[in-house]
Design a protein that fits this description.
Shape of chain A: globular
Number of strands of chain A: 0
Radius of gyration of chain B: 24 Å
Structural class of chain A: mainly alpha
Number of helices of chain B: 9
Number of strands of chain B: 17
Strand content of chain A: under 5%
Helix content of chain A: over 70%
Largest interface: A-B, 19 and 33 residues
Shape of chain B: elongated
Number of helices of chain A: 14
Oligomer: heterodimer
Largest sheet of chain B: 6 strands, mixed
Order of helices and strands of chain A: HHHHHHHHHHHHHH
Structural class of chain B: alpha+beta
Order of helices and strands of chain B: EEEHEEEHHHEHEHEEHHEEEEEEHE
Distance between the termini of chain A: 36 Å
Chain lengths: 263, 317
């Protein structure tokens, strides 16, 4: 009895302290001076543009990492070759590397002094300090989540169902579509939520790669920081609230699509 | 021959799973591949299905070379030990899978699924999910799913291996009856000699990647080709360096020249049968399977001296 309450208090207290309190405080500070100033702050030209940039990045990075994440997981689990273990370890690299380091390394690769930079800019493609570069680092940073969610589920479901489908006449694509994908869909969905959250929230790598040009390459997170640095606290907190709402919206969307069937 | 396997070899790394195997399976038969684990029986079945590729040799199904044909085009029905139920589909969707893939008309599919549900006695469970079924029901669903596409041959890999003893016994008898109804050439893998004897009309005994003997259950039991088949397809006792069936041994109270002296260690009553455990003069232990009437006639008691004699015909040197 006593230990049960102790565990509850410890668990919930920890969550409250670490998660709920700061987020709650952000909401409180955003609306400290009423809805009006907060609304004005998030509807300013720069804020709207920043939100647009953030969403543009996410709309490309999340599907890319979903499709290639599933492909990577299949390659690692279903079609292992010598060196697949290395690939498996490589997937975790973005989690281990500091985002700032990632940003710098991309800068070195695609910048004017980099390996690909001069050739690309000769052909009219600007990667650095532009949207393509920001999308690229965001993809890099948010790559592991779908792979990490899908790999264990693929291992767990095994190959029996897929082989059964094969003997029943299903092509590899039909087998994937009708058997494998439904079996991993919740892992994929959870991976997508995490990828989206990471893509929306990314700061370090995007900060380096974007050049932080207000009204051009400024994302929502950069906008929040910029506003904070300029002592415009209402704008900073209100923008943070917008980011949080987008994340909550994504999470709700995923939950809403959860089917009610048994199996 | 419905299935002809010729000179098939399969290696996994250093391990030779199948060593130059040839096997012919007649149309309409119910054949068991019987052997201990690691004997290669499942590998052979999977090669027939196209789920594994042989390193050498070929597979022929209904007179056509199937060696390079992918599993999905072989027209085989395959049933897995752990059911391989499509967990996110209802029973009827599971059974209809092969027909849906082939884009059969909806009405036709519905009718066929109805017939199969009846055949495997799962009427009324069409809308259930596999997680809501018992193991035996899942396996029957898997069987219906394999039969739905009218396979040329039906292959079952330890189909009752994951079920408890009572359900396993029920399903054996049921599979035998089903085969008498459907007549599709069937091959099933098992490590249980009793199961093979009870269900199959032909048995191929496998050991260490080779086929030791193929024949009717009774032939294997009565005329085993070698010591392995002798010891694997039934109980054995060792007497005078020879293997004999315990129920072929004869017990007498008096010696008569061909008998060996033994001491009764224990008499175990197993309903109709009586197992008499003996210790021979040289210290070897054997047991004799006798009927209750025989045991009563001899009036055996522990520690008593008896004489045991093998019938000359039933032994393997």
């Amino acid at each position: 009895m006593g230990s049960r309450w102790l565990i509850r208090v410890a668990g919930l207290g920890y969550l409250l302290l670490i998660l709920a309190a700061p987020v709650g405080l952000v909401f409180y500070r955003a609306f400290e001076h009423g809805i009006g100033p907060a609304w004005d702050a998030v509807t300013s030209t720069d804020a709207v543009h920043a939100l647009k940039v953030t969403l543009e990045i996410a709309i490309i990075a999340v599907p890319a990492n979903t499709i290639f994440g599933i492909l990577c997981a299949l390659a690692i689990v279903r079609y292992p070759i010598r060196g697949s273990g290395l690939l498996n370890a490589l997937v975790d690299l973005p989690l281990a590397l500091s985002p700032v380091v990632v940003g710098l390394s991309f800068l070195l690769l695609y910048g004017q002094q980099g390996w690909f930079g001069p050739w690309l800019s000769d052909h009219g493609v600007d990667i650095v300090f532009a949207l393509p570069g920001m999308i690229l680092v965001t993809i890099f940073i948010s790559l592991p989540f779908v792979v990490r969610e899908v790999v264990p589920v693929l291992r767990e479901i095994g190959t029996d169902q897929e082989q059964a489908a094969e003997t029943l006449g299903a092509s590899p694509w039909q087998t994937f579509r009708r058997i494998t994908l439904p079996a991993i869909r919740w892992a994929v969905a959870y991976g997508v939520v995490l990828t989206t959250a990471r893509a929306l929230g990314e700061f370090g790598a995007v900060s380096v790669m974007s050049g932080r040009i207000v009204g051009q390459t400024e994302t929502m997170t950069l906008h929040v920081e910029n506003a904070y640095q300029n002592f415009d606290y209402t704008a900073a907190y209100a923008s943070a609230v917008v980011l949080a709402l987008v994340a909550i919206f994504t999470l709700t969307l995923m939950t809403a699509f959860r089917p009610r069937e048994g199996g | 021959m419905a299935i002809a396997v010729r000179r098939v070899t399969k290696r996994f790394g250093d391990f030779t799973a199948l060593d130059n195997i040839s096997l012919a399976i007649p149309g309409g038969s119910l054949t068991a591949l019987l052997g201990p684990s690691g004997s290669g029986k499942s590998t052979l079945l999977r090669i027939i299905a196209g789920l594994e590729q042989p390193d050498a040799g070929d597979v022929n199904i209904l007179g056509e070379d199937a060696t390079g044909v992918p599993a999905r085009k072989r027209g085989v029905g395959f049933v897995f030990q752990h059911y391989a139920a499509f967990k996110h589909m209802t029973v009827e969707k599971n059974i209809a899978f092969g027909l849906d893939i082939r884009k059969h008309p909806k009405a036709e599919t519905k009718q066929r699924v109805g017939e199969l549900l009846e055949l495997v006695q799962l009427q009324g469970l069409a809308k259930r999910y596999p997680s809501q079924l018992s193991g035996g029901q899942r396996q029957r669903m898997a069987l219906a799913r394999a039969l739905a596409v009218d396979p040329k041959v039906l292959l079952l890999d330890e189909p009752f291996g994951a079920l408890d003893a009572r359900v396993r016994k029920e399903l054996r008898a049921w599979l035998r009856r089903l085969h008498d109804e459907v007549h599709v050439t069937t091959v099933f893998v098992t490590h249980d000699q009793e199961e093979a004897m009870e269900v199959a009309d032909r048995i191929a005994v496998m050991n260490e990647g080779r086929i030791e003997q193929v024949g009717k259950p009774r032939d294997l039991y009565e005329h085993p080709a070698n010591e392995f088949v002798m010891t694997f397809v039934g109980p054995v006792a060792r007497l005078g360096g020879e293997y004999v069936r315990p129920h072929d041994l004869e017990l007498t109270l008096e010696p008569n020249g061909t008998t060996e002296r033994a001491t009764v260690e224990r008499v175990v009553h197993l309903g109709f049968e009586v197992r008499v455990e003996l210790r021979l003069a040289d210290g070897e232990e054997v047991y004799v399977q006798a009927t209750r009437a025989q045991a009563e006639e001899l009036d055996l008691s522990d520690g008593q001296t008896v004489y045991v004699r093998p019938p000359a015909s039933a032994a393997i040197a």
